[in-house]
Amino acid sequence: MDTVKVKNLDAIVETIRSLAQIKKDTEDQCAEGLRIVQQVLSEAEDELNTSNNILNVCKAVETAKLAKKLEAEARMAKALADEAAAIASGNPVAIAAATAEVAALAPELAQAIEEYNNAVEHRQRIEHRCELAQKCVNIAQEMCETLNMRFGFSKGKILERILVGSKRLQLAYEDLSRYLSQISSEAKKEILEWDSWKPKENEPIKPDKIRDRLNASKNVTNGILEYLYVTDMDFRAVVDRHSQNLKIPGMESATLTQIKRNIVGRLCEELVIRTFLPMGTRIETQHRENLPDGSYTRVDMLLCGLKEPLILGKGEGMGAREGGSLGIEVKAGHKDYLYGQLAHMEKQAQGHLDCDISCTVCTRDIKDLSSDRETRLREKVREAGSPMLGMLPYKDDLDWDCVEFVRSKGKRHV
């Protein structure tokens, strides 16, 4: 949430360098990921080749064992036939010799059958191993193709974002450099002092400090506008569009109205955020709060974790302890607009009921109301629970600052 200051230039340069390093790191990591998956694929292919080679050997062994088994079976068949013939002849000697031959061949045949069966089982196991190796190769190939596609897509998107981001940062750097070169050293000092303010430890934050910060000088408001212009592309686009429209005949009046409404509104919100943020740990914006009647309101800002006790003014409900919370609404407008927002502000105040304290920060135009109207407005809003702080610069001054700022900007494409 910094306003424009010199250290932003160094931060932008460093960020551009960081983006270039991110690009290199991303490419290196993608290359390393692909290297690893290619290595896995290569190892899977090596395993498949090894398994196929083993399978070929197993098939050869199985064939040899089959031949040995068939040979043993043939010899056994012949021996059994010789034994049958001997028995038929009734020659005891021939019978004894034939029977001895059958008995001698039986262990050899059994061993040949066992070796062949073992060879078949081993070949089947290696075939299963080959199938698993092939699945691994298929998975590794698919993984390579997927990662190549994803890495290529991711690198392309990252490169695109980095190029756009670097171009925007370079443009921001040039804008900030140009802005800082055009303002005086006193203005730079004033911006830096306003932006660097922090509450003193163990010391309550009093209304005069809040008033001084909210009633920011033109240097500070211009610094905020410049920072938004170089960091928020939506804001930049709006400013550039208004800047061009001011040059178009017949559009100046409507464009000035939009600037005074939208640009000034954004400036006031940012000014309030930057005023109160150093007083707490964080600010939530546009916090939705449901109301008892079933409707809802959005709290402009919710300051959480007050670092020191905060005093908004005199009276009950105008102070909060350290660690407390502050609900904030922001209203920027002339006196009649502020008075016309009374009913709306009363409803918005209902969204602050869970806060320790709350306030409605508005432009100093509230002081231009008649005494009766100003008193009624302040009392009604205070009774609703969100007392008014008329501490922002006058609406006309903010209008003029924003119109001048928009006129100074030319159309740029990022």
Q: What secondary-structure arrangement, pairings included, does this model have?
A:
Blueprint: H1 6-89, H2 92-182, H3 185-195, H4 207-214, H5 218-231, H6 233-245, H7 252-276, E1 282-290, E2 296-304, E3 310-311, E4 319-320, E5 326-331, H8 335-340, H9 342-349, E6 357-363, H10 371-384, E7 388-392, H11 395-407
Parallel strand pairs: 5-6, 6-7
Antiparallel strand pairs: 1-2, 2-5, 3-4
Helix pairs in contact: 1-2, 2-5, 5-6, 5-11, 7-11, 9-10
How do you describe this structure in short?
The protein is an alpha/beta fold and 414 residues long. The protein is built from eleven helices and seven strands.
Overview of the structural elements:
The protein is an alpha/beta fold and 414 residues long. The protein has helices at residues 6-89, 92-182, 185-195, 207-214, 218-231, 233-245, 252-276, 335-340, 342-349, 371-384, 395-407, and strands at 282-290, 296-304, 310-311, 319-320, 326-331, 357-363, 388-392. The protein has eleven helices and seven strands. The strands form two sheets. It has a five-stranded mixed beta sheet. Strands 3-4 form a two-stranded antiparallel ribbon. The radius of gyration is 44 Å and the shape is elongated. 25% of the residues are buried. Residues 1-7 have low confidence and may be disordered.
